[in-house]
Write a structure and sequence with these properties.
99 residues; alpha/beta; seven-stranded mixed sheet; 25% helix; globular
């Protein structure tokens, strides 16, 4: 599971054998959530969900990650394609500015 980003304690990653739709997992401490890039008629919406068997992110963490994923959606899409389509290794990006 390559790390895509680190962000103020969060680790954002993509599983190499995962499925569509394009999404990332975000983990902080022992909590985890999933964030899906949902494109409908050219409009991007970020959907969030829980990961089975994992503790849920707190409400404020979900809000923070939805903002983060929306802001970095293009890079997430690029890295998803690099991993799943082109079978390339990616480099984790450390984000040091709050969204």
């Amino acid at each position: 599971m390559p790390k895509v980003f680190t962000y103020f304690g969060f680790i954002i990653y993509i599983f190499t054998d995962d499925h569509l739709p394009i999404h990332v997992h975000a983990m902080i401490e022992n909590r985890e959530g999933k964030f899906i890039l949902d494109y409908f008629e050219g409009i991007l919406t970020i959907l969030d969900g829980h990961v089975n068997g994992k503790k849920h992110l707190k409400a404020r963490e979900i809000t923070e990650m939805r903002k983060f994923v929306l802001l970095h959606a293009n890079k997430i899409k690029e890295q998803w394609e690099a991993i799943h389509i082109y079978k390339k290794k990616i480099t984790c990006i450390e984000v040091k500015e709050k969204v």
